[in-house]
Structures are given as C-alpha cells and as structure tokens.
C-alpha cells in the first residue's frame, strides 16, 4: 500500500520535471503548457523600449504564458501536499527519532526575511523590476490572496497539528508567507543575479523545514503552503500588470540570466548541492538469535548531498542522511530503527539532453544504527562501514536549479549483537532539489553574449 502511495507522489513530481518550455531553434514556442517551467522573470522582455505592439495587444501588456508557467510550478506542490497526507507519519518519525526536543522560534521571523531584503534594497536605491507603487500593489494583491486562501483552507480542513495544540495545521501559513516573500524578491531583483532567487528560496525552504522540526506542521502542510505562496504571488503580480500595463516597469536592466539558448551551448559542470527526501525500506526478514523473525516496514529518509565535478562527466562528492524504519515482529521499547549515514565517493553524469542528465555515484562511508531494545535487549547500537551505489535522473528546471529522481542501494553492517553475521540491505527511492553550479570561464563575456543573443532574438520577432 505504501509503495503505491509513494509511486503516486513521485509521478506527481515527475509531471513538474518533464514539462519544461519547448525549444524551437534558438527560441521557444510562446504557447503555455501545463506545468511549464518558467525561465526567469521575463514578463516584460523587449528591445529595451518595451514589448512589441503585437505582444501588448495580445496580452494587454502582460506575457500571460510566462506568468502562468511559473504559477503552475506551484500547483504540483499543492497536489503533492494533499497526496502526502497519507504518509505524514513516516516523515514525522524522522523528527521524533533525531530531534524530539527541538524548539526554535527563528522561523517566526525568517518567513519575512526576503521581503525585508526586497524593501531594503529598494529603499537604498537599487533599481528593481517595478516602481514603488507598482511593487506595493503587486505585493498587496499577493498577500491578500495568500492570507485569504490559507485562512479559508485552515478553517475548512481542520487538520490537527502534530503537537496537538490546535486544528489549524493545513496548510502552513509560515511556509506560504516565506515562499510568497521569496517569489516577490526573485521577481523584483532576480534579473540581477541567479543567486537572488537561490538565496530567497533557500530561506523559504529553511522556514518550512523548521516548522516540521518544531513539531508545528506535517510535511504535507509545508508542501501545500509552499505551492500556495508561489501561486498567489504570481497571480498578484499578474493582476498588477493588468492594471499598470507599461507604467512603472523597468526595461533598462532586462538581462536574461536564464538565457533561452540551449543549455548545452554553455560551459557546464554539474556540480551541485541539494536536499533529498525518500522512501526507505529493508526488504526481507531477519532472524534473531532466539529464532524469532524481525521485519522492517517502509520508512522515510532525508539528507543533504553535494558533489564537485572536474568536468561534465566525473566528480567527487558526499552525503549526510537520516533514516527511520518502523519495526514489526516483536514487542519493542522503541518501535523505529534510526540510521545515520555519512558517505563520500565518485559521482558520474552524462547529458542525455539539454536539460536531462543521467547520473549516479559509487560511495563508501560510515553508518550508525540506534538501539532497539525489547524486554531482553537484542539489538544494540552498532556502527561500521557501508557501501552505496546510486542512479539518478536530473532535470534542469532552470540554469541553476535541478530536480532529481533517484534510486539508492545501501549494503549495511550487521546490527545484530550476537549470532552469525547477517547482511542488511536498504533501498531508497526519492526526489531531490539541488542548486547547480555551472562553470563559466569568463562570466562578463558570457553576460554580454547573452544580452546580444536576447537582442538578436527580439529583433527577429515580427511586430
């Protein structure tokens, strides 16, 4: 049953990953597709003087497909959040196993940090996408929509929080606010550097993870909240664009850092740093010294993984992961097996397409298993070396953002305290989001070349 639920969740994620913009030569078709991945803040890309008359007539001054494309990246988050409700307990076990007493209120303030940075940069005179009036109207629409939707859903769903404090858990308002402010910052200043968006969404992600760590929200609450924050901000900016049209919009600095040229035309080494979530399982039954059988049920896994690539194909990296697997077959004082692993090894990557990378790694490392004790105490804390090969498929949603599906096998040390040594096998299937670090030999030259390509592309568009 759990396998079917996880296959459905991964299928939903795959819908997001495989539906990027369609290329046509050096450009892209302008039609919007479901779950189209948006290529940066290009709502008003023009020749420096504004959008063409034809484009303005068709969209009333707004590139609607671009706005809807980014909004649709939030829809799968909401859908996945709803689907993940059935496996919330699996991921909560990670929190209870490794940080049961965690308490930190930084997330109460962290959710507003991207907005504070945006207003601060604007107040200091740093030119943004919008004028003060246009930006404030856009943000007011976004906040009103986000707050209204979150309040309505909380009041309707009445989901109890993990700590039992009230029944206003779904969706996470903190996470929705964090992703709303992150999207605002990215829309206003993302054109200056891809690191603006990377930093903004990293803060938003940290806010959501802290809500889980503080035992205030389930995983499904955070996923849905993130989607609501992104969608409402896109709608808020779209409404403001319809009102203001060409008033208060900045065309002077429309440099496309997420260039529409094929990714393969740029120097690229797939170095990355990201976080992953997955379903972990230990197939089979394990015989105890007294003859009884022990079985591990599917559990959850989460961690951080990164690698530095020396060229487009080979690199070296490592990972830090946590796993929690429920145990059945015998009465225990603690009903979960907790595993902590640290790996390092060789990583491989092969560009199947412009946006699709086939990868893998062969790693060795250290594993520590927590104690499982029955009335007589048959499992003790054990540690030892482990071996782990993995395969992955990475989709470059943006130039500096990769989403990945992976399958990993782990050969674990024997955790039984006595008797014949037994080999333990763990399989993990999951998804990851990663920051990509493309190699650029001459960033200034590449920046100028990208600007020239955009001008040439726009001059080729018929009026």
UniProtKB/TrEMBL annotation:
Domain Phosphatidic acid phosphatase type 2/haloperoxidase: from-to ranges: 139-237
Location of region: Disordered: 441-463
First and last residue of the signal peptide: 1-24
Cytoplasm keyword on record: no
Superkingdom as given in the UniProt entry: Bacteria
Entry keyword set: Signal
SMART domains referenced in this protein's UniProt entry, alphabetically: acidPPc
Record flagged with keyword Ligase: no
The protein's name in its UniProt record: Phosphatase PAP2 family protein
């Amino acid at each position: 049953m759990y396998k079917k639920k996880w296959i459905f969740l991964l299928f939903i994620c795959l819908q997001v990953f495989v539906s990027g913009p369609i290329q046509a030569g050096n450009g892209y078709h302008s039609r919007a597709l479901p779950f189209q991945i948006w290529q940066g803040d290009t709502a008003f890309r023009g020749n420096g003087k504004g959008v063409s008359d034809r484009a303005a007539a068709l969209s009333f001054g707004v590139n609607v497909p671009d706005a809807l494309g980014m909004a649709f990246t939030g829809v799968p988050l909401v859908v996945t959040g709803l689907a993940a409700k059935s496996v919330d307990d699996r991921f909560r076990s990670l929190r209870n196993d490794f940080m049961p007493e965690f308490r930190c209120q930084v997330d109460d303030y962290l959710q507003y940090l991207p907005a504070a940075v945006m207003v601060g940069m604007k107040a200091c005179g740093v030119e943004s996408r919008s004028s003060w009036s246009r930006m404030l109207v856009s943000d007011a629409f976004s906040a009103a929509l986000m707050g209204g939707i979150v309040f309505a859903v909380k009041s309707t769903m009445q989901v109890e929080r993990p700590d039992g404090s009230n029944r206003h858990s779904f969706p996470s308002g903190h996470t929705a606010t964090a992703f709303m402010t992150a999207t605002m910052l990215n829309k206003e200043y993302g054109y200056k550097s891809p690191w603006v968006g990377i930093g903004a969404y990293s803060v938003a992600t940290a806010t959501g993870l802290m809500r889980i760590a503080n035992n205030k929200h389930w995983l499904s609450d955070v996923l849905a909240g993130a989607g609501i924050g992104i969608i409402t901000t896109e709608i808020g900016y779209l409404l403001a664009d319809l009102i203001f049209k060409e008033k208060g919009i900045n065309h002077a600095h429309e440099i496309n850092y997420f260039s529409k040229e094929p990714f393969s035309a740029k120097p690229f080494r797939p170095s990355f740093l990201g976080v992953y979530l997955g379903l972990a399982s230990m197939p089979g039954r394990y015989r105890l010294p007294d003859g009884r059988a022990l079985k591990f049920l599917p559990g959850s896994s989460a961690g951080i993984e990164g690698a530095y690539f020396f060229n487009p194909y080979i690199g070296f990296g490592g990972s830090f992961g946590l796993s929690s697997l429920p145990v059945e077959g015998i009465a225990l004082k603690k009903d979960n097996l907790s595993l902590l692993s640290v790996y390092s090894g060789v990583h491989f990557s092969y560009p199947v397409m412009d946006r699709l990378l086939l990868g893998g790694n062969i790693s060795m490392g250290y594993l520590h298993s927590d104690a499982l004790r029955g009335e007589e105490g048959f499992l003790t804390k054990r540690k030892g070396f482990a071996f782990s090969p993995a395969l992955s498929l990475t989709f470059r949603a943006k130039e500096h953002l990769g989403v990945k599906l992976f399958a990993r096998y782990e050969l674990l040390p024997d955790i039984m305290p006595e008797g014949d040594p037994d080999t333990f096998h763990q399989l993990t299937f999951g998804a990851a989001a990663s920051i990509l670090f493309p190699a650029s030999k001459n960033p200034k030259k590449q920046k100028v070349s990208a600007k020239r390509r955009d001008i040439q592309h726009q001059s080729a568009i018929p009026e």
